[in-house]
Amino acid sequence: MKNLLIIITLLFLGGTSHEESVTWNEKTKLTWADFKAPPSLTSNAVAVTASGITFGYAVKTSGERIVDFSTTVEAHFYPNKSWYIKEKGNPHVLAHEQLHFDITELYARQFRAQITKLIVNQNVKEQMNRLHAKINEAVNETQKLYDEQTNHSMNIEMQEEWETTIQIELKKFEDYKSQ
């Protein structure tokens, strides 16, 4: 039987392969230089972090049978969609924005963990899209809750609590960090 290799790469959050992005890395933290978009004139925020999860997968088939399945999942920061007000940007606000990116990485790890439990079949595209949609919904809810509970970093006690919680959660999913 002839082997057929199908490779599908999908990018989300409006991303394209040509859009500038920073892939999450535990050793590299965001700096204000990473925030390249002009500040919004209609927002009350001091800064906005645009981040998202991209994924791709490859399926190798032999006839109707899937013989190999591999994936990539990454958390990205989008500099050209992220901004801050220079006069108000400080290390505390930057740490708040970094944690938004860290939350995105946490959900990328959860996505990778869910993929390991996937029983891949001929509907792999729908399976992956369904998983991704659920993860995106969860990460968006968490990002909103984070901003609400920390009052966009103004509640210092809650900000510290979130930082601790996210670091603990990232460690729980250590086995699923990107290679």
From TrEMBL:
Pfam families hit by this protein: DUF922
Coiled-coil portions: 121-148
Keywords: Coiled coil
Protein name per Swiss-Prot or TrEMBL: Uncharacterized protein DUF922
Lineage start: Bacteria, Pseudomonadati, Bacteroidota, Flavobacteriia, Flavobacteriales
